[in-house]
Amino acid sequence: MNINYLSNINLMTKKLVKKYYGEYGMKEWKRLAKDPYHRLEFDTTMHFLKKYLPKKGLIVDAGGGPGRYSIELAKAGYDVILLDLTPELLEIAKRKIQKEKVPDKVRILQGSIDNLSIFENNSFDAVICLGGPLSHIVSRKQRTKAISELVRVAKKNVPIFVSVIGRLGMCINSINYLWYEMLEAPKVYRRYTIKGDYLGGYGFTPNHFYSPDELKKEFEAKSKVLEMVGLEGIFSTHKKRYNKIFKLKKYNKILWETHLKTCTEPSIVGISEHFMIICKK
């Protein structure tokens, strides 16, 4: 495969991702808080950020979109650089940062996670790349470059957190929705369920759906893997049921405790809609 073709694929996918999230806008800000099931991704991520983050320091939120994690970390006292590809999401972030009264704690930059050349080596006390930005790079070569960049800008022995969209969780969910490309484009469906690569065109933006082993291997070459976490864990693909049970309130404590005890089990990581790898340089 020639370099020009790969370059064109990268440019095309970035353009489509930018367009998708530009139009998605406030929905991306609301996504992590719109119901108890979606809140699981946020709450689980925050639990593990608190477990591994240093008590203070400068964090880069790479691909942080409208800034929900940036704001939460700024409120906890960290200094944050929020970087994202999509101007519309950064505009939302600016408004939310002002509203939450943390403009002195968060700096906003436009850019892509596969090119962090504006930052020097060993710049940050922690690196986060959450919600799936790495998944939106379909080219394996470019994903490898992005991982190298995320590791490069981290100081030695500091935590790096990267969450992606899971392939098995997506496959399990497909039976719930009977996605129309099963019939209209079976080759497309087979490609992203088996290999993980999806170039867009059927309701979602370009994406690489990860398996845990694949993500682990990509990071093991450049860092030490500390832990992997299934962010929706045992409740993955059970959105309606989880939301219904959550409203009853009486089960919430034991469900959360069980989730935290099981979400690092390899089989649970594998079936989660989103899962996170935690490494250190």
Distance between the termini: 32 Å
Count of strand segments: 9
Biggest sheet, in brief?
Answer: 7 strands, mixed
Shape by Cα distribution: globular
The side-by-side strand order for the widest beta sheet comes to 3-2-1-4-5-9-8
Put simply, the count of helices is: 13
**CATH fold annotation:** Rossmann fold
Structural domains: how many: 1
- Level of helix content? 40-55%
Q: What's the SSE pattern?
A: HHHEHEHEEHEHHHEEHEHHHE
- The mean pLDDT is 94
Radius of gyration: 18 Å
Portion in strands: 15-25%
Low-confidence stretches: 1-6
Structural class given helices, strands, pairing?
alpha/beta
Short description:
With 281 residues, the protein is an alpha/beta fold. 49% of the residues lie in helices and 16% in strands.
For the structure shown, list the relevant keywords.
281 residues; Rossmann fold; seven-stranded mixed beta sheet; 13 helices; disordered N terminus
What can you see in these coordinates?
The chain has about 280 residues and is of the alpha/beta class. Helices cover about 50% and strands about 15% of the residues. Strands 3-2-1-4-5-9-8 form a seven-stranded mixed sheet, sandwiched between helices. It has a two-stranded antiparallel ribbon with strand order 6-7.
